[in-house]
Amino acid sequence: MSDKPVSDLSFEEALRALEDIVTRLERGDVALDQSITLYERGAELKKHCEARLNAAQMRVEAIRLAEDGTPKGTEPFSA
């Protein structure tokens, strides 16, 4: 497990680290104290991944429609 701060991880790095933690916890061969530490790191990674996905979603373009319903162009996505 990397000691790199979660905030410094790319989305892909954070997702791989989260997958590794889930695998380790599912195996059930980790001591209780280490399981708690892994769970806490996993929660941080999940939050980081969600924030990165939300930021990416904000950059997605939405299709603008003309009054007759035909595509007119694009504009920045707004939630």
Describe what this molecule looks like in 3D.
This protein has 79 residues and is an alpha+beta fold. The chain has one domain: Orthogonal Bundle (Helix Hairpins). 57% of the residues lie in helices and 14% in strands. The longest helix is centred in the middle third of the chain and has 28 residues, at 32-59. The mean pLDDT is 87.
Helix content: 55-70%
Number of domains: 1
Structural class, by secondary structure, is alpha+beta
* CATH architecture label name: Orthogonal Bundle
Order of helices and strands: HHEE
Top CATH class: Mainly Alpha
**Biggest sheet statistics:** 2 strands, antiparallel
Quick description:
The protein has a two-stranded antiparallel sheet. It starts with 10 loop residues before the first helix and ends with a strand. Helix content is 57%, strand content 14%.
Notable traits:
Helix Hairpins, 14% strand, alpha+beta, 79 residues, two-stranded antiparallel sheet
Please write out the topology.
Elements: H1 11-27, H2 32-59, E1 61-65, E2 71-76
